[in-house]
Structures are given as C-alpha cells and as structure tokens.
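Notes for week 9. Today we move from apo structures to complexes. The key idea is that a small molecule is not decoration. When we ask for a structure prediction with coenzyme A present, the ligand SMILES becomes part of the input, just like the chain. The input block below holds both the sequence and the ligand string. Read it once before you look at the output, and try to guess where the molecule might sit.
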Amino acid sequence: MIRSELPAAEVRLRPMTTGDADRVLAIYQAGLDGGNASFETVAPSWVDFDAGRLPAHRLVAVDGDGTVVGWVAVSPTSSRAVYSGVVEHSVYVDPAARGRGAARRLLDALIDSTDAAGIWTIQSGVFPENAASLALHRRAGFRVVGTRERVGRHQGRWRDVVLLERRSPLVK
Ligand SMILES: CC(C)(COP(=O)(O)OP(=O)(O)OC[C@H]1O[C@@H](n2cnc3c(N)ncnc32)[C@H](O)[C@@H]1OP(=O)(O)O)[C@@H](O)C(=O)NCCC(=O)NCCS
C-alpha cells in the first residue's frame, strides 16, 4: 500500500525529537519546492531550525509504520514582553500524505498546547495562492487580518501575503 492510501486514522501525533530532524527538514523542503509555502526556498539546517522554534510546541504526525509525515512548530514573534504570548507557526505535510487530515490534527493539537501554556495569539503569513493553507486555517478558527500587497519578492516575483491569526478565547 502506498502511503497516501493509508486511512487517516493511522496518522497519530507525538512530540518532535532530534531524531526526526531529517524527515522534518525533508518535508519542509518539499513544501518549499511547491512554491506557495514561504518566501524561503531552502530549508534551514537542524541547528537553525532548533534554535528558532520553541521546544514545548513541536509536534509530528506519524503514519502506521512510524514514518513522520508532517510537523508543526512555532517561533516567538518579538522579544518585547507585551508580545510574549504571540507566536508564529509553520505546518508542513509530506506531499504523499496530504488530504488525510494530518495538518488539521497537527494544528488542533498545537492550539491545545499553546492554549495550555498561556499563549494567546498564533499567527501566520500565507500566500493567497495557497488554497490548502487558507482552507486549513479557516477551518481551524483563524481569521484573516488583511492582505499585504507585493510585500516581498519570491524567485523574482512580487508576492502578496495574507496575514492570519487565532486569538485564544481561553487566555484572558
Ligand atoms: C497546507 C498543508 C499543510 C495542508 O495539509 P493537509 O494534511 O493536506 O491538510 P488536511 O488534510 O488536514 O486538510 C485541512 C483542511 O483543509 C482543506 N484542504 C486541504 N487541502 C486543500 C486544498 N488543496 N484546497 C482546498 N481545501 C483544502 C481540507 O478539506 C480540510 O478541511 P476539512 O477539515 O473541512 O476537511 C499542506 O498542503 C502542505 O504541507 N503544504 C505545503 C506547506 C504549506 O503551505 N504550509 C502552510 C504554510 S502557511
């Protein structure tokens, strides 16, 4: 059976570990190669990935044979105390495992994790062409803040970015 035929029920979540580095970065690179995930074109080294993301809120989705098929992680947005509960997240799923609910489960679990830690806002910037990400986030309760127009160049082309955010109702 090829991976994309596995039922969604066989995807389970667990905390990301250093041992997941190669799969996490390969899935990251596959997402970047699609051209609609990020301004970045090359996945970082594990050292840089690890240094830039909060250890407490990193999850992977694994399929029935234990292969990592997706991940979610967050970075702080500012060193200012007032924004200490505001993070920016990334969620990436292996192209062979998309459309099975892995990202939705990762995002829901991330929200549980950040809510429990008192993080009040999760935000992300998404290219308007990234229909899958926009649908995923809308269904997970994110709102569109607005669209930044031609805010950066990606492979020589100016791109708009839709700003999304989810304000936790639990953190008061
Ligand atoms: C965006 C991404 C993470 C979605 O992963 P996924 O596991 O396929 O998403 P899911 O199967 O969990 O789908 C989540 C929801 O989005 C919807 N969706 C997924 N792909 C879609 C698409 N191409 N078009 C429209 N809706 C889509 C699903 O119907 C689902 O809605 P539902 O909960 O009502 O059924 C995946 O496409 C990816 O890794 N893309 C490259 C990296 C990227 O762009 N990351 C986001 C950067 S902001």
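The beta strands are 12-15, 59-62, 68-76, 86-93, 121-126, 143-154, 157-167.
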